[in-house]
Amino acid sequence: PSSKREGFPSPPSTSWSDIGALHGVREELHMAIVQPIRRPEVFKRLGISAPRGVLLWGPPGNGKTMLARAVASEGRAGFIAVKGPELLNKYVGESERSVRAVFARARASSPCVIFFDEIDALVPRRSDKLSEASTNIVNTLLTELDGLSERKAIYVIGATNRPDMIDPALLRPGRFDKLLYVDLPKGLERVEIGRTVVNREQVPVRGGLLGDDWRGVEELLASDRADGMSGADIAALVTEAATTALRDALGQAMHHSHGEDDLHGPSTEQSLREQAE
Ligand code: ATP
Question: Where does the AAA+ ATPase domain lie (predicted)?
Fold first, then answer.
């Protein structure tokens, strides 16, 4: 029950320019959701129906949440984000009510994008041992998806690391019928993400904080030593490099101004940081 859940959902601030690489997925999302929101009449005239739901899948930390936010933002649509496990409630019927409430909120402020993160937790593959409660949640979600008419301009994006763990009924036509794989970045894609993070976080690279160190970071990202790094890992690396560079710069400033040896007292560091700002 965060404050973001209250009131009307407004478009998020994330845009395509905050995201590096993933060009194929962006293009697909643009055609599947952004364009239908912006130009509904064109799609109607041509008799093309936009997919009701898109499922983003792939390893964690590679931009699924960012993509969903950017789609809503580019379509100037409201955005409601729900984490699958958050909707699970031990009280009978409470989870279904929550699912219905999410769709009701979306209808009240269309166009709107609903993002179900960790959707596998909400709608696990139905098996014999699946509880009645889970079955009810799956059915509620299916009913809501089936009930969405295009004119309402409500689009649902699900995200999961484990698409094999999702109830297959959800993947039928008219439901989550578009599956997009959000892959780990490779080689130069990692460099592109690094640069995006630098721009986004406004890390002064040229003639500034990272200076020559930045070339080292880019070389690392491009090399196979960085294989397996996720977008989130890259963001952490860039932030870390910037923090280290800041600390070094502050240390040098300290030497020049006071010539002291102990640079690591928290109070000195704090006051230096304030001076630097
Ligand atoms: P999870 O499956 O863990 O929910 P996710 O795929 O939804 O992960 P995000 O939450 O969108 O991943 O990304 C986590 C963080 O990693 C972002 O806040 C961002 O800083 C960084 N990041 C990941 N991918 C990218 C990218 N392609 N471009 C820029 N930043 C990225």
Answer: 50-186
